[in-house]
C-alpha cells in the first residue's frame, strides 16, 4: 500500500457513531453520497464541507463507540478521509473500517499532531510522521491479513479474489 | 487449563480448542440484519452472490424491519420494499413492521446455548444471556457470514463479573449494569467478554440477564454472557424451545483477565447522565431534575417484567402534567401478555402513550424525537449526544422503576421514596 499523506483533523475522546453518522439521517442510508455531506457534523460543523481527499482524522480514546452502523466509516471514506489515527478504537468500528478499506491506526498521537499538520503514514512499516513538525512515532502495524484486506479495498474484494476466506 | 464460557463456545464451533488472543474462523448459527444496517448488508452480500456465494443458511438468516416502521419517510418505505424483496428472493426469514425488536425476537425464537449469533447491530450481545456468543458486527461482516456461513473471530479475554447478594427493593438489573459502567467506563471492557456469574445469578430471571448482556457493548465488550442453567431451560421451555436447551458454563479453572465483584445488596438506583453511559451517579444525586419525556421500552427494558414494574407504580395514578410517558413493548408476545395482565390498561389510564413495538425512539428515527434542549429519561441503553435524534437534547438512562416514578412526579425520582 502506498504511503498515506494528508492534513490532520483533530477530534477528542469518545467520538460515537451518533456523532459520525447521526441517527436523524437514517433516511439517507441508501443515499450515502448525500449522507457523507453530514459526516461528523455534530462533532465539527465545518468538517464535512472542508475535508479534502487524503485528509487524516486524529482522535483520542474509544473512537467510533456505539452503534454498529458501518455507514460511519463508509461516509468518512466517501468524504475523503484516508485514515483514522486514534489512541483506541471501539471494536465494531475498527472491524468495519478495515472491512470497507479505511485504514485505522492505533497510536496515541493527539499530543504529537496539531489540527492542520500534514501527516504521513506507512501502514506496513508502522511509521507515523508529522511532516509539518519534522517528528515521527511508531505503531504496531495491523496483522498481515488486515493489511491485505486494506490493499484489496475491503473484505468483499478479498473474498472474491480468493474465492473464500483465508486468515 | 479450564476455559471461560466464551472460549468454550468458540472452541466447540470452530475447528478446535482455542484460547484468548487467538484468531480463528468460526461457523455462525444465526445471522440477523435490520432496516438500519440491512440495505448496506444486502448490497455487499449481493456482490458476493454475484461471484458465486449463495446465501449459506436462508432459514437462519433473519431480516427485521424494526428500526423505522411504520415508516415516517418515503426513503425508508422504499428501503423496506427492497428488504422484503431480498428476503422473498433468497428465502430468508422476514420479520415485517410490528413483528418486534430484533434482539428480543432472537432470544424468544432463535438463539440457542453454545452457538454463535451474529447480528448487524451492536446489541446482538443480548443473546449472550442464553449461553451463546451473541455479538454485533457491521453490515459487511454480516454479509460475509451470510455468504460463507462463518466469519473470523478473535477469542476475547474475559472479565468475570461475580454477583452476590440480593437486590434491595426499588433496585433492578439496570442498576447493576449502570453501576458497572460507572465503575469501569465506556471503554473499560473493549474487545473483552463479560461473563456474569456468582451466587446471585441463579436468582436473576432471563429478562434481568437480557438487560445485563444487552449493555455489555456499552462498556466496549464483544459480548456479555451467562452460563446456560435451569433458569435458561425453563425460559426456553416456556418459548416452546426446550429442545434448544443444553447446559453450558465455564470450567472451574478458567483464566480470567479480571474478576469484578458486585454485592447486589449494596446497590442503589443508578442513573447515567448526559452524554455518556459511564457518566453514572445515584438517582438521589440528581433527584428533582425536571423531565419532558420518559421512554419505557427497547431491547434493554421493554419486556413484561419492566412493564409490570411500571404498571405497579402507575396503577390508579396519573403521569404528571408537563411530562409525557411513551411506552413501547419490545415484541408482540410481550404486548399480548401485557394486555392480558392489564399492564397496558394501567399505563394507558395513567396517561401513557402506547406505541407499536420497534426501535424508533431509541435510535432517534421516529415516534418520540426530542425538541431543542429537552430532557428525556429513558430505559434504553445509550445517551450519546444526538442519540434520540436531537443533538441539543439531554438523555438520562435509568431503570423502569425510576422511569415510572419520575413520570408520576415529572422530575427524576428515587423509587424508594415514591413507591
**String of helices and strands of chain A:** EHHHEHEHEEEEHH
- How would you state the average pLDDT of chain A, rounded? 95
Q: For this entry, what is the oligomeric state of its chains?
A: heterodimer
Please state how the strands of the largest beta sheet of chain B are arranged side by side. Answer: 4-3-2-5-6
How much β-strand is present in the residues of chain B?
15-25%
CATH architecture identity of the largest domain in chain B: 2-Layer Sandwich
CATH superfamily placement of chain A: Aconitase, domain 4
Chain-wise SSE layout:
The complex is a heterodimer of chains A (167) and B (419).
Chain A: E1 4-10, H1 17-20, H2 32-35, H3 47-50, E2 56-59, H4 71-79, E3 83-86, H5 91-100, E4 104-106, E5 118-122, E6 127-130, E7 135-138, H6 144-152, H7 155-162
Parallel strand pairs in A: 1-2, 2-3, 3-4
Antiparallel strand pairs in A: 1-5, 5-6, 6-7
Chain B: H1 5-13, E1 23-27, E2 30-34, H2 38-50, E3 61-64, H3 74-90, E4 93-95, H4 102-110, E5 116-119, E6 133-136, H5 139-148, E7 150-154, E8 158-164, H6 173-184, E9 193-197, H7 206-214, E10 223-226, H8 230-238, E11 258-263, E12 270-272, E13 280-282, E14 293-297, H9 298-301, H10 304-314, E15 324-328, H11 332-341, H12 343-349, E16 353-354, E17 375-378, E18 394-397, H13 400-409, H14 415-418
Parallel strand pairs in B: 2-3, 2-5, 3-4, 5-6, 8-9, 8-11, 9-10, 14-15, 14-17, 15-16, 17-18
Antiparallel strand pairs in B: 1-7, 12-13
Helix pairs in contact in B: 2-5, 6-7, 10-12, 10-13
Amino acid at each position: 500500500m502506498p504511503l498515506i499523506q494528508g492534513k490532520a483533523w483533530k477530534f477528542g475522546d469518545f467520538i460515537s457513531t451518533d456523532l459520525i453518522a447521526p441517527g436523524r439521517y437514517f433516511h439517507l442510508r441508501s443515499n450515502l453520497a448525500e449522507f457523507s455531506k453530514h459526516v461528523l457534523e455534530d462533532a465539527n460543523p465545518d468538517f464535512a464541507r472542508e475535508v479534502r481527499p487524503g485528509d487524516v482524522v486524529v482522535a483520542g480514546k474509544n473512537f467510533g463507540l456505539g452503534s454498529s452502523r458501518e455507514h460511519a466509516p463508509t461516509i468518512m471514506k466517501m468524504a475523503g478521509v484516508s485514515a483514522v489515527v486514534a489512541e483506541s478504537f471501539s471494536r465494531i468500528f475498527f472491524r468495519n473500517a478495515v472491512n470497507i478499506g479505511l485504514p485505522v491506526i492505533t497510536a496515541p498521537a493527539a499530543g504529537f499532531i496539531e489540527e492542520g499538520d500534514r501527516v504521513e503514514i506507512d501502514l506496513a512499516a508502522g511509521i507515523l510522521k508529522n511532516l509539518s513538525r519534522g517528528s515521527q512515532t511508531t505503531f504496531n502495524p495491523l496483522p498481515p491479513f488486515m493489511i491485505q484486506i486494506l490493499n484489496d479495498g475491503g473484505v468483499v474484494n478479498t473474498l472474491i479474489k480468493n474465492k473464500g476466506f483465508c486468515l | 487449563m479450564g476455559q471461560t464460557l466464551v472460549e468454550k463456545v468458540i472452541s466447540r464451533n470452530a475447528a478446535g480448542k482455542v484460547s484468548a488472543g487467538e484468531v480463528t474462523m468460526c461457523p455462525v448459527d444465526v445471522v440477523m440484519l435490520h432496516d438500519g444496517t440491512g440495505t448496506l448488508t444486502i448490497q455487499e452480500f449481493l456482490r458476493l452472490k454475484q461471484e458465486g456465494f449463495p446465501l449459506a443458511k436462508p432459514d437462519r438468516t433473519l431480516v427485521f424491519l424494526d428500526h423505522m416502521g411504520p415508516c415516517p419517510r418515503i426513503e425508508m418505505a422504499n428501503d423496506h420494499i427492497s428488504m422484503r424483496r431480498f428476503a422473498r428472493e433468497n428465502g430468508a426469514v422476514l420479520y415485517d413492521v410490528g413483528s418486534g425488536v430484533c434482539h428480543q425476537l432472537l432470544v424468544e425464537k432463535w438463539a440457542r446455548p453454545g452457538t454463535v449469533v451474529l447480528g448487524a447491530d451492536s446489541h446482538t450481545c443480548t443473546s449472550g444471556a442464553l449461553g451463546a456468543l451473541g455479538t454485533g458486527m457491521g453490515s459487511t461482516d454480516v454479509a460475509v457470514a451470510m455468504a460463507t456461513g462463518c466469519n473470523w473471530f478473535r477469542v476475547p479475554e474475559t472479565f468475570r463479573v461475580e454477583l452476590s447478594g440480593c437486590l434491595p427493593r426499588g433496585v433492578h438489573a439496570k442498576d447493576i449494569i449502570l453501576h458497572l459502567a460507572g465503575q469501569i467506563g465506556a471503554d473499560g471492557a473493549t474487545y473483552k467478554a463479560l461473563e456474569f456469574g456468582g451466587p446471585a445469578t441463579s436468582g436473576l430471571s432471563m429478562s434481568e440477564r437480557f438487560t445485563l448482556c444487552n449493555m455489555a457493548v456499552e462498556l466496549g465488550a464483544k459480548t456479555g454472557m451467562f452460563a446456560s442453567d435451569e433458569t435458561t431451560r425453563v425460559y426456553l421451555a416456556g418459548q416452546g424451545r426446550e429442545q434448544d436447551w443444553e447446559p453450558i458454563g465455564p470450567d472451574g479453572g478458567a483464566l480470567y483477565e479480571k474478576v469484578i465483584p458486585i454485592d447486589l445488596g449494596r446497590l442503589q438506583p443508578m442513573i447515567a447522565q448526559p452524554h455518556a453511559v459511564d457518566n453514572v451517579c445515584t438517582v438521589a444525586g440528581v433527584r428533582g431534575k425536571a423531565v419532558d419525556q420518559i421512554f419505557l421500552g427497547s431491547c434493554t427494558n421493554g419486556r413484561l417484567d419492566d412493564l409490570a414494574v411500571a404498571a405497579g407504580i402507575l396503577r390508579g395514578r396519573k403521569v404528571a402534567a408537563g411530562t409525557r410517558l411513551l411506552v413501547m413493548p419490545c415484541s408482540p408476545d410481550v404486548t399480548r401478555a401485557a394486555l392480558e395482565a392489564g399492564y397496558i390498561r394501567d399505563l394507558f389510564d395513567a396517561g401513557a402513550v402506547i406505541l407499536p413495538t420497534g426501535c424508533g425512539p431509541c435510535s432517534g428515527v421516529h415516534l418520540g424525537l426530542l425538541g431543542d434542549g429537552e430532557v428525556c429519561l429513558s430505559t434504553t441503553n445509550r445517551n450519546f449526544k444526538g442519540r434520540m435524534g436531537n443533538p441539543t437534547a439531554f438523555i438520562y438512562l435509568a431503570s423502569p422503576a425510576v422511569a415510572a416514578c419520575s413520570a408520576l412526579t415529572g422530575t427524576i425520582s428515587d423509587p424508594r421514596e415514591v413507591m
